[in-house]
């Protein structure tokens, strides 16, 4: 029979299962813990909790691994030192490979010295020949241009006609000069205008003016040609005779050759000495190998330390779990609390990257969609999809705040008006999750310093969907809030008439206390798998029942630790 049956057959007779004692938990949770500890599945649940805490097992196992590995290395090392103390002192074995490399390098330098000297002389001669050829070619080109300009200038001087000026402007030395090109274009236009006068050009004043202008342009062209010829003559004057070839200094090459010869002789002598030392050290190698064989091999030490670390790590973690057992599954939580499990929050599914503006404005810990929270809302809401007043209780403040925020987001997506109230004045967990931390809130409203409507903040939880958050306000005011129970009750009655859903975040304090606000409503208890101690869950549910509170159910949290990010 399975564990969920009421009666199972054991080796000594019928045994009552975990499910059969849920009814007794409502009257005696402590007795249920004792009976659960005697159940056959109790150790299996403790081992399952240890398996769910790999970081603890890894930390303990790594510590044991390091200690064992150090011990396995230090003990043989001390024994090796004792044996080596009795061995004679030996010189380090010389490395003949390095000496042979020096010999090859010195020989290579010796052989390459003459070839480098010859190559250097040949490169200097080749550079001199190239320089001479370039200088001769430059002088010839400049001289040719000077001669051409001289001939054309003489022609323009002897025959100051438009054809002479055009020939001068078309000289190779003046090509590319923009001033010459502009004057040549003007000359062509004037010449064409003069040709239009025909045979009467000698008496027409316009013709005379054009002729004068043509002569002026010709003079300008002659002046530009004179300047260009002067520049070319200066260039030809600067192109002087070739300088003498630099003398080759063979002193550095000779020093390099002598150094290579000395290094070659020294390296050959070191090689002979190293080979003599090798023969003397062969006998000591056998004794050194026998000393090195003391102790286990490295793979064996690593394997042994790993196995021992895993075993001890699991054993220590199991001992800690047995000493302070934690809730392993929903059945165990139901057995302790005496109520059923409403939903299980498993690992968060992979969601697409938030790209919409409304998604980016949402708090990071509010999920875009979650079947577990929708199931929880469906079980807690009334037929009109309202949650008039509900508190979320648990021993971890951030986890209870995340549950309250996501449950409120689901209600807001059902087009309900939602108000989240943060009563955690010690850590402001809900305010941190919803990114409204550091503002005035519930404590200021109860003290009469602020109206509750002015303390409410609107937070986006979906496209066109928002919910209101009433932060806790000042830090460390549990005692003040408990002293104002009437004011808190009046405030809750007032806001429940204004909102369809009112969710109160009421986690346990760091000292293990629970505010009066948590028990004034029907709370939902958040239980973290493998993290909530059975003792804490028993004390929490007993405290709620001791104040005549009614627990709506249990929410199992099967995820890792959430981290709140404040705005």
List the helices and strands and how they pair.
Layout: E1 7-10, E2 13-16, H1 22-25, H2 29-37, H3 42-51, H4 54-84, H5 96-158, H6 162-169, H7 178-195, H8 205-238, H9 251-292, H10 298-323, H11 330-337, E3 341-345, H12 357-361, H13 371-380, E4 387-394, H14 397-413, E5 418-422, H15 429-433, H16 442-446, H17 452-455, E6 457-462, E7 465-470, H18 478-483, H19 485-498, E8 501-505, H20 516-519, E9 523-528, H21 534-546, E10 553-557
Parallel strand pairs: 3-10, 4-8, 4-9, 5-7, 5-8, 9-10
Antiparallel strand pairs: 1-2, 6-7
Architecture overview:
Helices cover 59% and strands 10% of the residues. It is of the alpha/beta class. It folds into 3 domains: 53-86 and 295-325, no CATH class; 99-238; 330-557, 3-Layer(aba) Sandwich (Rossmann fold), CATH 3.40.50. The strands form 2 sheets. It has an 8-stranded mixed β-sheet, sandwiched between helices. Strands 1-2 form a two-stranded antiparallel sheet. Strand 6 and strand 7 (465-470) form a beta hairpin. Helix 5 (96-158) runs antiparallel to helix 6 (162-169) and helix 5 (96-158) packs antiparallel against helix 9 (251-292). The protein is flat, with a radius of gyration of 51 Å.
Please report which band the strand proportion falls in: under 5%, 5-15%, 15-25%, 25-35%, 35-45% or over 45%: 5-15%
Can you list the strand order of the major beta sheet? 3-10-9-4-8-5-7-6
In whole angstroms, the N-to-C terminal distance is 53 Å
Structural class: alpha/beta
3D shape: flat
Radius of gyration: 51 Å
Number of domains: 3
Number of strands: 10
Quaternary organisation = single chain
Query: How many individual helices?
Result: 21
**So, CATH architecture of the largest domain?**
3-Layer(aba) Sandwich
Low-confidence runs (pLDDT<50, min 5 residues)?
1-32
Largest sheet: 8 strands, mixed
CATH superfamily of the largest domain: P-loop containing nucleotide triphosphate hydrolases
